[in-house]
TrEMBL record:
Pfam families given in the database record: ANTAR, Response_reg
Source taxon at top rank: Bacteria
Source organism (scientific name): Thermosulfuriphilus ammonigenes
Organism lineage string: Bacteria, Pseudomonadati, Thermodesulfobacteriota, Thermodesulfobacteria, Thermodesulfobacteriales
Gene Ontology molecular function: any one: RNA binding
Name assigned to this protein: Response regulator
């Protein structure tokens, strides 16, 4: 038998104060190939289990003791973004607004059936995966821009100090980066820091 699709291997935390609902969800999800790693019976327990178990996705009722599902979602996502699907018997504009602010990725209306549950899980997980990819792309771009700024500054220092042309300064940076087995951004930062340290030392020696 071939392995199930990747989305069927995700770890799910359930949160609902009605045991009949969590038991039914657990059976449905397990039969569909998912792994239910924990069950919370109130909002605070959901926050604690999310912190401890680090699930891939959470299915959570809105109306629960201690704190409601939306507040629990807000606290969970404040610590670690996790795709969350809320379950509710009704949905008004205020609930939808609060859910959006808590970064909830989906909701289901009771009574929940398998034909609604599984697609909601798949969609929320897929959206979360794409968001993580986009976040990673933005972080990589920011890092690349920061490296370019360091290299340009270090290149300028080499040009001023050694009387090099821009192309010569760049080749020197690349050569030293390979020789020292350092990333060019790290080498550029080292050159800048060394220059600043030298200037500081020279200033402190002035009468």
């Amino acid at each position: 038998m071939s392995d199930p699709p990747a989305f069927q291997k995700i770890k799910i935390l359930l949160a609902d104060d009605e045991e009949t609902i969590t038991s039914a969800f657990q059976v449905l999800l397990t039969d569909a190939g998912y792994q239910v790693v924990g069950v919370a019976h109130n909002g605070l327990e959901a926050v604690e289990l999310a912190r401890k178990l680090k699930p891939d996705l959470i299915i959570m009722d809105i109306l629960m003791p201690e704190i409601d599902g939306i507040e629990a979602a807000r606290r969970i996502n404040k610590e670690r973004f996790t795709p969350i699907v809320l379950v509710t018997a009704f949905a008004d504009q205020d609930l939808i607004r609060r859910a959006k602010e808590a970064r909830v990725l989906g909701y289901l209306l009771k009574p929940v059936i398998i034909d609604d549950l599984i697609p909601a899980v798949e969609l929320a997980y897929e959206i979360a995966s794409r968001l993580r990819e986009l976040t990673g792309e933005v972080e990589n771009l920011s890092e690349e821009l920061a490296t370019r700024k360091l290299v340009e500054r270090a290149k300028g220092l080499l040009m001023d100090t050694l009387g090099l042309k821009e192309a010569q300064a760049m080749r020197l940076l690349q050569k030293e980066s390979r020789r020292r087995r350092m990333k060019i951004g790290e080498l550029a930062k080292t050159i800048i820091e060394a220059k600043e340290l030298l200037e500081k030392a020279q200033t402190s020696q002035l009468p």
